[in-house]
Write a structure and sequence with these properties.
single chain, three-stranded mixed sheet, two-stranded antiparallel ribbon
């Protein structure tokens, strides 16, 4: 949850992220290249249907250097 400050008004909203990985071998994986249209439709649906969400990202981090789970 991120708090955004506008003067004295504090707005707390949720930032959601989605990622799909194509596993190459046990220790490496590459992100799946979603189409721009799919990413836009998915982000819009998440923002509209998940209460409190006002931002959606698409994580394109491969493994390595990233990990499968966010820590």
């Amino acid at each position: 949850m991120v708090q955004v400050h506008f003067g004295v008004l504090i707005v707390s909203q949720i930032i959601s992220s989605f990622r799909r990985l194509n596993q190459i071998v046990g220790m490496t994986a590459d992100y799946h290249p979603f189409t721009h249209e799919f990413r836009g439709e998915t982000a819009t649906r998440i923002i509209n249907e998940v209460k409190g969400t006002n931002r959606c990202t698409n994580d394109i981090t491969s493994k390595p250097p990233g990990t499968i789970e966010w820590e």
